[in-house]
Amino acid sequence: MSDMTPIGQTPIGEPLLEVRNLSKNFGPVQALNDLTMMVRAGEVVALAGDNGAGKTTLIKAISGVYQPSSGEILLKGQKVSFNSPQEARDIGIETIYQDLALADNLTIGANIFLGREPMRKAFGFLPVLDRAKMAEAAKSTMALLDFHVSRLDAPVSNFSGGQRQAVAIGRAVYWNAQILIMDEPTAALGVPEQRKVIQLIHQLKAQGRGVIFISHNLQDIFAVADRIVVLRRGVQAGERRISETTHDEVVKLMVGG
Amino acid sequence: MTSPPAAPPAYTPHVAPQADHADKARTFMQRVADLRAWLFLAFLILGFEVWSRISFGGTFLFNPFNIQSIAVFAVAPLLLATGQTFVIISGGIDLSLGFIMGLAAVVAAHVINWLTPGMGFLPAVLLGAVVAVAVAAIPGFINGLLVAFLKVPPFIGTLGMFGVARGVAFLLAGGTTVPVKNEVFAALGNGKFHGVPYIIIVTAVFVLLMHYLLGQTRFGQHNYAIGANAQAARRAGINLKWHLLRLYILSGMCAGLAGVLYAARFSAGAAQAGEPLLLDAVAAVVIGGASLFGGSGTILGTVAGAFVIAVIQYGLVFINVEPFWQFISVGVVIIISVLIDQAQRRFSGGRQSE
Fold first, then answer.
1. pLDDT per position as a tens digit, B77-134
2. CATH at A49
């Protein structure tokens, strides 16, 4: 794991990501209006809200897909702006997409290194892919997430949904993502697999990373999140500590009761 | 690195033994399926060997003349299939390769004829070959532009280029074949080094190079990723357009080399040189284990696929069967390999249980 700089430069509990007065409009449509939120190191923040509430717009603005119309984003106290998701990723904001993340025909290691494959010299001159290094990184990264896989030479299509989700998260972890944005990470999974992903999120939290977690499943939210931010029609409808709220209250905030 | 917190024991590997066993069976089946082209080839050769011993009392396989003829026969389809392998793995297809080969053969013939009086035999051949391969890169480049930048489906874009390359090749050839007057070129096409024809040596070296490119470089790795999930590849920061552009140029140049070797072998350039080979090349790739949906395939598989076709075609002539049976046999082999591919997908598609 030599490529990894130590994480946790931001002490647990300190602000990692701040969104200040963020607005985004598409023509006359105000998708997001004056939204402010914060994610601390080692904190899981759930985003909840009905369809069209602005959750997706918000994470797309944070991950560099959209440029906000106004407002600012701060990472570790410094103002940042991105022209592409690549730029956001380069400074440690990684989005885990549910289906679109992996090349199924490649190994875990190859997926972790996709686009930045390590090379070595065979016979002292011939550059070849360093598969040993990729497998080693795959093994240690997956172990870090408490997933123990034996078959490092198998394509990821051989693995289960939860394991594949872990590979996608493992890639982000390997490249030292500070903020992980997870959009419905449990939606397509069976119940045991869902539990595994929830466990994974706990691991990320323990490592001092910040997690933004979108889910329709309140049970998942209550199982993993520290705080919940509820959006309604592009504005913040409320923010609660999970320990101080109930399902009912959250639903009321979502539907505007 | 922060150390991971103590693992809750509930999810750790209590199912390992059965999973391992199932894994091994699966891995074994996958290996067999991956090697099917070589198994086909072995069965075919065995069949012809038996037939040959029974009906002629002589050997098929151990006759060096047979082996050499089959190899020479396989050169052009194999070169086309090598480029096609890359394209098919990326999820595309290149239908223009046959006529790019013809175009390159005609260009090689003209350029060598034109340069020989001034430069002498060998320099004319070398320069002519380079020019022909470079010209073959042009339709490849246009294919790449169409597919990568203008989002034309590869099937249609390269079908258009099929027509364009065909027309240009016939125009350049004046509608006829272009004979080459150059001894060195003829020697390249028909001479041998320690009993091995030069064109086989050139092809073998080139195919090895392509095997390296596909299996051991970032270009090859990205090619697999794009074929499996172009979206994921783009998200991972791979420049899809640039990759596809280079990919189609590469496949055009493979066809260009096939054209040069064809012109050398027959001391003539012909626009229709590659016409019957295009579908043989696609067949070789499919028999070799690539999926037309993209994402899988290997150069070595394609080599076996090309040899399966060459052995069928040559072997049937050898045992005196009406040549039309060639089409039937190759067709049957293609269908069987696709069926195996699908069965394997179904088998390995069942994901490892937790």
1. 999 999 999 999 999 999 999 999 999 999 999 999 999 998 999 999 999 999 999 9
2. 3.40.50.300
pLDDT at A13: 77
**Residues of chain A neighbouring B296 (CB-CB closer than 8 A):** 105
Residue extents of the structural domains in chain B: 33-50+64-345
Mean pLDDT of chain A: 86
A49-55: list long-range contacts, CB under 8 Å, 24+ apart: A49/A230, A49/A231, A49/A232, A49/A237, A49/A254, A50/A232, A50/A254, A50/A255, A52/A233, A53/A231, A53/A232, A53/A233, A53/A234, A53/A254, A54/A231, A54/A233, A54/A234, A54/A235, A55/A214, A55/A231
A234 and A256 housed in the same domain: yes
Cα B321 to Cα B310: distance, rounded to the nearest angstrom: 15
Of A115, A129, A143, the CB nearest to B217: A129
Chain A touched by B27 (CB under 8 Å):
yes
Q: Give the pLDDT score at B322.
A: 86
pLDDT, residue A191, reads 80
Between the ranges A16-30, A117-131, B127-141, where is the mean pLDDT highest?
A: B127-141
Q: Which residues pair with B178 in a beta bridge?
A: B269
Domain-ending residue, one of A141, A160, A175:
A175
Verify that A24 and A143 share a domain, yes or no.
no
Which of B221, B341, B346 should we substitute to test contact with A (largest number of A Cβ atoms within 10 Å)? B221
Residue of A60, A158, A191 best to disrupt the B interface, most CBs of B under 10 A: A158
pLDDT, tens only, B80-89: 999 999 999 9
Cite the DSSP H helix spans in chain B. Answer: 16-34, 36-56, 64-89, 97-119, 121-144, 154-172, 183-190, 198-216, 218-228, 230-235, 240-266, 277-287, 299-318, 324-349
User: Which residue in B has a C-alpha nearest to residue A87's C-alpha?
Assistant: B237
Q: Are A206 and A220 contained in the same domain?
A: yes
Domain count, chain A: 2
Do the beta carbons of residue B4 and residue A206 sit within 8 Å?
Answer: yes
Mean pLDDT to the nearest integer, A227-244 = 90
Residue A3 has pLDDT above 60, yes or no: no
pLDDT at residue B160, rounded to an integer: 95
For the entire predicted model, the pTM comes to 0.85
Which 3 state secondary structure label does DSSP give B258?
helix
Lowest mean pLDDT among A132-146, A192-206, B22-36, B140-154: B22-36
CA of A143: which chain B residue's CA is closest?
B4
Show residues of chain B in contact with A143, CB under 8 Å: 4
Same-domain check for residues A183 and A257: yes
Which CATH code is given to the segment(s) B33-50+64-345? 1.10.3470
Bridge partners (DSSP) of residue A129 are A119
In the stretch 230-289 of chain B, residues with CB closer than 8 A to chain A read 231-233, 235-238
Q: Which residue among A159, A175, A191 closes a domain?
A: A175
- For residue B243, give the chain A residue with the closest CA: A115
State the DSSP string of B284-304: HHHHTT--TTSS---HHHHHH
